[in-house]
């Protein structure tokens, strides 16, 4: 009975048993995209950028940039306006040959 009368609502301080986990660093994810995929999923004259690719589920939502590649001598069937952070020389040449444009944007 005496113990109950002297009891308090305070919890005793606990000693940490392990060091806190280090903060996780986020690593930028750059999506790799083949020009044939763009050709397949977009109509001619479309403006292609990271947002339009995310909206169609072609690149992950976590992507912070994109790099476009193409097989050598790949011929686009349509013209596109492409905004990208990085592009291979083959992909750029194919887009321009089809009458499209490439605009390099910062990350």
Task: Give the amount of beta strand, in percent.
Answer: 15-25%
Low-confidence stretches: none
Number of strand segments: 6
Q: Could you state the order of secondary-structure elements as H and E? A: HEHEHEEEHE
Approximate shape:
rod-shaped
- Spatial strand order of the main sheet: 1-3-5
DSSP helical segment count: 4
Distance between the termini: 69 Å
Find the structural class using helix and strand composition: alpha/beta
Give the radius of gyration.
Answer: 27 Å
Sheet having the most strands: 3 strands, parallel
Structure explained in plain terms:
The protein has 107 residues and is of the alpha/beta class. It contains four helices and six strands; from the N terminus they run H-E-H-E-H-E-E-E-H-E. It has helices spanning 2-6, 35-41, 50-55, 89-97, and strands at residues 29-34, 47-48, 63-69, 81-84, 86-87, 101-104. The strands form two sheets. Strands 1-3-5 form a three-stranded parallel beta sheet. The longest helix has 9 residues, at 89-97. The model has no long low-confidence stretch (mean pLDDT 86).
């Amino acid at each position: 009975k005496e113990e109950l009368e002297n009891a308090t609502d305070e919890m005793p301080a606990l000693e940490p048993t392990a060091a806190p986990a280090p903060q996780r660093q986020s690593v930028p994810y750059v999506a790799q995209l083949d020009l044939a995929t763009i050709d397949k999923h977009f109509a001619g004259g479309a403006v292609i950028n990271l947002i339009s690719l995310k909206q169609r589920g072609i690149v992950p939502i976590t992507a912070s940039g994109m790099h476009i590649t193409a097989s050598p001598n790949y011929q686009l069937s349509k013209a596109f306006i492409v905004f990208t952070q990085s592009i291979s020389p083959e992909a750029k040449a194919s887009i321009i040959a089809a009458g499209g444009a490439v605009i390099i944007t910062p990350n």
